[in-house]
Every structure is written in structure tokens, then in C-alpha cells.
Amino acid sequence: MPKIVDHDARRAELAEAMWRVVYRDGVAAATVRSIAAEAGWSPSALRHYFATQTDLLIFAMEHATAKITERFAAESWTGPPLETVQRALEQLLPLDQQRRREAEVWLLLASRAQTDPSAQRRAREADDGIRQVVNLAVDALAAAGLLAHGADHGAEKARLHALLDGLTLHALANAELMPPGQVRALLADHLGSLARPRGTDATR
């Protein structure tokens, strides 16, 4: 009888091997050869699943997205609305090594999106996932009365999304100038400002 191969199990095995390499050595180190060595496979066997480096990067993004989803599912999401929203948005920021590696995968995938249609599609999906969390966050603040009267909800969602992207890029580019505490403080300051009309002096 022909040997039955459980492809889902083999992809899961590769995912774990890939993420061990990424977590230990960084995204740039996650090549077909390094992941094959980590998994105890031959490079030719690995290429059966990933024909190109972009395929491998997309797979890494899928795995990162699964990790983020697991973290959201594990939370109880109880407590004051402002604190709950802050905790939710922090899941998307590079505040520890795991989340930093996830952000690195996203950044590399986004850089390839300019020339590779498959990378572009996956990067757009990742961006849509972030936008969904941002939309839920702003809607939750609005429902709790924590948005300024007359605020443009669509504009606030776009601003918050841009802030998350900017904080992520700054934290990845220069961790010394943008450590986790600073990232958290800037996000908290922005969320607090949403309850004040533009141009209002917060000290009054």
C-alpha cells in the first residue's frame, strides 16, 4: 500500500520548526535550509511545501496570525473599557520577543508586497485583521462614552491604525529609543486623548 502522508501534521511540524528559528535567530535567518535543518528534513523535501521564499514568509505570517488569535482567545476581556482596549491593542505591538518576531514577519511581508502579488494579498489580509481590532476598539470606547462628543469615528479609527503601525516601526527600528514602556505610554496617552475635543488643553 502507498504510504499515507498527513500533510497537515507535516505543515504543523514545519511551522514549529520555522518559528523556533525565527524566535531564536530572527526572521532573516528563516531560510529553507535553516528550517529544514531545524526540522530534520532535507531542503528538497521542504521545497515540496514551499516553492519560494515568499511562500515561506506567507506561512510564517499565517503562523503569527494564529498566535495572535490564540492570545485574544485566552483573554477574559473584563475590566474598565479603557484598560481593556489598551490590553487588546497591545497584543498587536512588539512589546516582547514573541510579538517582536511577529511584527518582523509582517514588515518583511509588507516589503515584498510591492513586487509579489501573493505577498500583497497576505499583507492586505494581515492589515485587515489589524483594522478589525482597531474598529472594535474605537467602537468599544464610543459605547462607553469615552470618545469626544462629535468625534469622527472613521477618522479616529484611521488615526489609531496609523499610530499602531508607527509605533511598531519605531520599536523595530530602534528598540533603545522606543522601549516597551514608552510604546505603552504613547498608546495610553492617545487613547486618553480620544475623550477630549481637538485643541482642548488636557490640563484644564
UniProtKB/TrEMBL annotation:
The keyword Lyase does not apply. It holds the Pfam family TetR_N. Residues 8-68 form the HTH tetR-type domain. Residues 31-50 bind DNA. Keywords: DNA-binding, Repressor, Transcription, Transcription regulation. GO terms for molecular function: DNA-binding transcription factor activity; transcription cis-regulatory region binding. SUPFAM superfamilies: Homeodomain-like (SSF46689), Tetracyclin repressor-like, C-terminal domain (SSF48498). Transmembrane segments: none annotated. It comes from the Bacteria. This is HTH-type transcriptional regulator PksA. It comes from Salinispora arenicola.
